[in-house]
Structure formats: C-alpha cells, structure tokens
Design goal:
By secondary structure, the protein is an alpha/beta fold. It contains 14 helices and 26 strands. The strands form five sheets. It has an eleven-stranded mixed β-sheet with strand order 11-10-9-12-8-13-14-15-16-17-18, with helices on both faces. Strands 19-20-24-21-22-23 form a six-stranded mixed β-sheet, sandwiched between helices. A five-stranded mixed β-sheet has the order 2-7-6-5-4. The protein binds ligand UAG, adenosine-5'-triphosphate, 2,6-diaminopimelic acid and magnesium ion. Adenosine-5'-triphosphate binds next to helix 4, helix 8 and helix 10.
Length: about 475
C-alpha cells in the first residue's frame, strides 16, 4: 500500500475533495479491473470516456478517483482529485508508484515509422553480448534481462512500462531499449520517463487514421525529442527529410547519422548479398547478416548508439557482426527446389517498397517475385491503394489477401488495395481472402529459383478477425505449403 499523496507527487492538481493521505492498493484505469482500495484514473479514450465508469469503480472498491472533471455525485469516504489530463496523471502516478524506475537505468527510446523493433531488439542483443544486464520493451516481447514477458503493444500503457522497468531495476539492468510509438507519445504512455537518449529512424506514411495529418504525426514523434533533458542524446537519421525536424527544439546533445549526407556517423554499403552485406562504418569494414539499404541505416543507428553509450568502437563492430536478424524481419527459407520464401513485417508502403527493392537487387536471373500481402483492418485505410500499387509495380505476380481484418470486411480491404493497381499491372493480380489458401497458391505458382515474399505479419503468430484470434504463423505456413507440394 502507498499513500495517494506520494503517488500524486508531481501531478498538477486542479481540485481535491477528501484526504490525499488515503492508502492505495493499485492504480487502475479500467473500471472492470478495479479492486479494493485502488485508485481509479478516468481516461478520455478513443472509444469511450472513462469518466462514465467512476461510479462503477467506486462500487468495485476504489477509495480514490483521479479525473479531469469532478463528478456531480461524490460518495462519502472517497477522495476525488481533479487533474488537467488523465493520461498525463496516470503516467506520472505509475512512475511514482513503481519508484521512478527509469531514473535507475539508462533508458533509450527508439521512434520512427519503421525499424524500431529491429534497432531496439538488436541493441538488446548487442549489450547482452557485451556482458551487461539489459531490458527491452518491443512489439514482439518484453525482456527483463533473460526473462521474457508477453506484450500486446509496441509501447505499452504507463503502468505496464513502469512495472517492467521496476523489474529491470530489481534484476540490476543497466540499460533498457524501448520502442516509442506515436500512439504511445500521443496517449502520454511515456510521460515522466527519464530517457538517456532517443533515436529517430524515419518517417513515412502510417497511422493517418489516428493522427489525421502527416504534420500531426511528425509533431507527435518530435515531442519525444522536445522532452529530453540536456544530459540525454538525440540521434537522428538526416537522410530522412524529417530527421532534422526532430532536433529543432531539443535540449539534448544532438547527433546525426546518414548514408547519403554529411553526418556524425556515416556508413557505406560495399557489397550486398542474400546472406549479408558488407558495410563500411567509421573507416572499418563490417559484415552484417542483415541485408538491404534499410538495414544499413538500422546497423548504423545501432553503432552510433553503442558508441554514444561508451562502448569501444572496434568491440561494437565485432559484436555487430554476430547479430542475428529479428523474427519476421526478412526471415527467409530456401526450399528443396531452391524457391526462396521471405517473411517480412512490411505493413507500411515504405517498408514494402524497401523490401521489394532489396529483393530486386538480389535477383540474378529470370526468377519471378511473387508477393503476397494484405492490409490490417481498423487501421489507416489510405495505405491500402498505395501498398496495392507498390506490390504490383515491383513484383511479377501479386496475391492480395487478408492481414488482420479485425472488425472490417476482408473483401472491402482487398478492393481498396486493388484500387491502387495501374491498368498495366492488373494482369499480375490474384485476390484470395483466405491467407492460408493464398500462401498455398503462391507456392503452387512458384518454380525453382523464384522468390515468394509473404508481407505484413512478420513475427505474428495469430490472425485476428472480429475479436477472435486463430493461430497463424506465416513462416510455418509457407514452409509447410512448399513441403506439401514436394518443392
Ligand atoms: C487506439 C488506441 O491506441 N487505443 C488504446 C487506448 O484505448 P482507448 O482510448 O480506445 O480506450 P477506450 O476504450 O476509449 O476507453 C477509455 C477508458 O475507459 C476505460 N473503460 C472502458 C470501458 C469500461 O467499461 N470501463 C473503463 O474504465 C478504459 O480502460 C480506458 O481507460 O488505450 C488503451 C490502454 O492503454 C490501449 O490498450 C488501446 O490500444 C488499442 C487496443 C490499440 O489497438 N492500439 C494500437 C493502435 C496501438 O496503440 N498501436 C501502437 C503501435 C502502432 C505502430 O507503431 O505501428 C502501440 O504502441 O502498440
Ligand atoms: N530503417 C528502416 N527503414 C525502412 N523500412 C524498414 C527499416 N527497418 C525495417 N524496415 C521494414 O519495416 C518492417 C518493420 O520493421 P520493424 O519491426 O523494425 O519496425 P517497427 O518500427 O518496429 O514497426 P511497428 O511500428 O509495427 O512496431 C520490416 O519488416 C522491414 O520491412
Ligand atoms: N503496430 C502496427 C502493426 C500492424 C501490423 C499488421 N499486421 C496489422 O495487423 O495491421 C499497428 O498496430 O498498426
Ligand atoms: Mg515495432
């Protein structure tokens, strides 16, 4: 139990009714999960207003309420606290409740449209190899040194973040690498965290359902840099046209990386093959198992970060050459008949284009590129025709199929992808709603040396339709389908 007063330290209160000396069991922002003596924080969400559930929270045992507007009906014996912003209060309260764990380690944020999971997971791998105890908060998993925890978000809610940071403190972790999504910043899930540094990867088309305009999406990402302290570093990719925007108002020490521009950290691609690429970084050569121009950026960001965190340059390069790609990121399988199947999490236009361009640089003859791709439901609809266009422009054959349809009609999503196909590419397209059937068809169409790209779901092991998740793993499915065909 902790006192409400201590938990509220640093939260600006606009009104208080009742004693703040009351003891609190847990902090809770969902009335359905409230227990005895909890403090319930009412959040104005995207679907409903949490203020509607204040009474229900009190009925379930909440002894204190944090909200943006005091309710008309206030129950005796319950403390009501009014704050300016519920999300912001929740984040600061979560940090206080868990003992402000971000202050006890070096927390590094990775933000941008693509590359967050790759960079944060590989930094985790690298610092582990260097002998440190390390934490990771990523789309795929949370790691408290060697212990793994599942996650449902790229950037979890503030309570989940701080709970795991506290576990990292207990485990003696010195570093934590975390992905910071634009939803996370906008919903203030990361407020109150003390970052030792932040990395910007790139900015391209995504989430325009949520942010409405590209400028708003960009400015949301920028807020992460605006909030850094002068002791932190801000590392940005200046080949991206928004790279310098991130540094405009930051107090942090500024560093840049680039392949094409003059920058503090520079890399050059010397050679590119299917099993790796040769990079030149800081006048030293590095063999990277991760291929493609986009991964040269990721590797450079990793190198720069490790350098800024004080690791020795040659040691960083040695450890980087041992790094393995992350699941579902250009994960490939070569079949008996030498058909190459690539599973990749490209779920944005830019990622899809990068992966297909990388594949095209690796082609040696007349092999076909067969791309299978869908778009997620209840997500940015404007990505769909663009991804339909890119897939058909850069492939010989394309199968449009379902990603996670969520609450949308799979057929409608596919039609929206088809709308982006140029007339001259229409002949390349097949549309098969059922993803398993689509994978089988791609495998039937492939002959020796062909390349099948299964895009969009990467590491995911499920497919979600109308709230129901079935087991689904692209890598397993494509391997099974090729084996069943004796290919
Ligand atoms: C659109 C979005 O981001 N929604 C997130 C948000 O939920 P919300 O605002 O919709 O919540 P709401 O349903 O309106 O409810 C408002 C409040 O009332 C409360 N409530 C509600 C009902 C009730 O009976 N009682 C009650 O107390 C809720 O607990 C909540 O506090 O806050 C929730 C708690 O933190 C999140 O779990 C939820 O993520 C949803 C599930 C989601 O799918 N988010 C995705 C889009 C997301 O965040 N993705 C990014 C990655 C994107 C990327 O990088 O590509 C991520 O960081 O994971
Ligand atoms: N630096 C990069 N630039 C452009 N595309 C990239 C980059 N790194 C990875 N990609 C592409 O984007 C896909 C997703 O990569 P990754 O999972 O690292 O991104 P993310 O930012 O974590 O995505 P999410 O927002 O879903 O968490 C990869 O499968 C690859 O196709
Ligand atoms: N972080 C992204 C992941 C998209 C992955 C794709 N497979 C989908 O389900 O749309 C999002 O939540 O928008
Ligand atoms: Mg991610």
């Amino acid at each position: 139990m902790k006192s409400l007063k201590d938990i509220l330290y640093g939260v600006g209160l606009t009104a208080v009714s009742g004693p703040t000396t009351v003891m609190v069991n847990n902090i809770c922002f969902d009335s359905r999960k409230v227990g005895l003596d909890d403090v319930f924080v009412a959040i104005k969400g995207t679907q409903v207003d949490g203020h509607r559930y204040i009474e229900k929270a009190v009925d379930s045992g909440a002894k204190s309420i944090v909200c943006e507007e005091l309710p008309e009906l206030m129950v005796n014996g319950v403390t009501y606290v009014e704050v300016q912003n519920g999300n912001s209060a929740l984040a600061i309260m979560a940090s206080n409740y868990y003992g402000n764990p971000s202050r006890n380690l070096k927390l590094i944020a990775v933000t941008g449209t693509n590359g967050k999971t790759t960079i944060s997971s590989l930094l985790y791998q690298l610092f582990k190899k260097a002998g440190f105890k390390v934490g990771l908060l990523s789309t795929i998993r949370i790691k408290v040194d060697d212990t793994e925890y599942p996650t449902g978000h790229t950037t979890p809610d503030a309570l989940t973040i701080n709970k795991h940071l506290a576990l990292m403190n207990e485990a003696g972790a010195e570093y934590c690498f975390m992905e910071v999504s634009s939803h996370g910043i906008h919903q203030k899930r990361t407020e109150g965290l003390v970052f030792a540094g932040a990395i910007f990867t790139n900015l391209s088309h995504d989430h325009l359902d949520y942010h409405k305009t590209f400028a708003e999406y960009r400015d949301t990402k920028k807020k992460l840099f605006d909030q850094l302290s002068q002791n932190a570093f801000a590392l940005t990719n200046i080949d991206d046209k928004n790279g310098l925007v991130m540094l405009q108002n930051t107090k942090a020490k500024k560093y840049t990386y680039a392949l094409k521009s003059y920058a503090d950290y520079r890399a050059q691609i010397l050679e590119n093959q299917f099993n790796g690429q040769l990079l030149k970084i800081d006048d030293n050569e590095l063999w990277s198992r991760l291929i493609g121009g986009f991964n040269a950026y990721n590797m450079l960001a990793i190198y720069a970060t490790a350098d800024l965190l004080g690791l020795e340059k040659l040691e960083i390069l040695r450890l980087m050459s041992e790094l393995e790609n992350v699941e579902g990121r250009f994960q490939y399988y070569i079949s008996k008949q030498k058909i190459t199947a690539i599973v990749d999490y490209a779920h944005t236009p830019d990622a899809l284009k990068n992966v297909l361009e990388t594949i095209s640089t690796l082609r040696t003859g007349n092999e076909k590129v067969i791309t299978l791709v869908g778009c997620g439901g209840d997500r940015d609809k404007s990505k769909r025709p663009v991804m339909g266009h890119i897939a058909t422009e850069f492939s010989n054959k394309v199968i449009f199929t379902s990603d996670n349809p969520r609450t949308e009609s799979p057929a409608t999503i596919i039609h929206e992808m088809e709308a982006g196909v140029e007339p001259q590419n229409a002949m390349k397209v097949l549309s098969i709603e059922n993803r398993e059937q689509a994978i089988k068809t791609a495998c039937q169409l492939a002959v020796a040396e062909d390349i099948i790209l299964v895009a969009g779901k990467g590491h995911e092991t499920y497919q979600e339709t109308n709230g129901v998740r079935i087991e689904f793993d692209d890598y397993k499915k494509v391997k099974e389908a090729l084996a069943a065909l004796g290919k």
